[in-house]
Amino acid sequence: MNGQMTQYKQSLARTPKPIPFSQIKGTMDYRGLLAYAKSQGKKISELTQTEKKKFYTE
User: Which of 15, 28, 36, 44 is least enclosed by beta carbons within 10 angstroms?
Assistant: First the structure.
């Protein structure tokens, strides 16, 4: 397989572990974020970080 499996395993080793939910300090208003994205005619992934931060509270 031309080393594809080796590259895959190396990639997995470099991937950071997920952050446990208990360590997340702030909250995100996903319902508001989704409504905002729909009103702008965009997907959530297309919004800028500044727009997303409006719905995040610590």
Answer: 15
pLDDT tens digits, residue range 4-45?
999 999 999 999 998 888 888 889 999 999 999 999 999 999
Q: Write the DSSP assignment of 20-48 as a string of letters.
A: PGGG--SEE-HHHHHHHHHHHT--GGGS-
Residues 6+ apart with CB under 8 A from 55: 28, 29, 30, 32, 33, 36
pTM, 2 dp? 0.59
35 close to 51: Cβ distance less than 8 angstroms: no
